[in-house]
Amino acid sequence: MKTRVRIVLLSCALGSWFFFGCAAGRRSEPLRGSLDVSNPKVAHGQVVFMNQCDKCHPGGDAGLGPSLNNKPLPGFLLGFQARHGMGAMPAFDKEELPQTDLDDVVAYLKALRRNG
Ligand code: HEC
Question: Using H for helix, E for strand and C for coil, what is the string for 39-89?
Fold first, then answer.
């Protein structure tokens, strides 16, 4: 009887270690693999994105706005949407988002998409 209790306890402990271990690993490890930011346009685009877009499109995923990392939208349309806005998405004028910044955001979004 005692051994049986011990086995049950042991398997519980092992089970939860396995379960939580996996869950924790899953959470800390990005599912898509890390983004290659060796391209300076992509790296800068990521910074601009974090400042301007991430609050509604967190990490390119859906938030208040739809996800951007799984859309086959061509670059000029990504840029057009940011410049002109649509529905609940605000427009970003050239003061707020200079053309080079916008180009870099588009480069970043394309890199995200290649990555996913
Ligand atoms: C205040 C929240 C908000 C911010 C900030 C924001 N967006 Fe959006 N975005 C939205 C919403 C909401 C939509 C959906 C608009 C609609 O179709 O009505 C959207 C849609 C889009 C789309 C079209 C996606 C599709 O599926 O058609 C693109 C591309 C996009 N946003 C890019 C950007 C970029 C780039 C930035 C940063 C420069 C940005 N967004 C910042 C809220 C936001």
Answer: CHHHHHHHHHHHHHCCCCCHHHCCCCCCCCCCCCCCHHHHHHHHHHCECCE
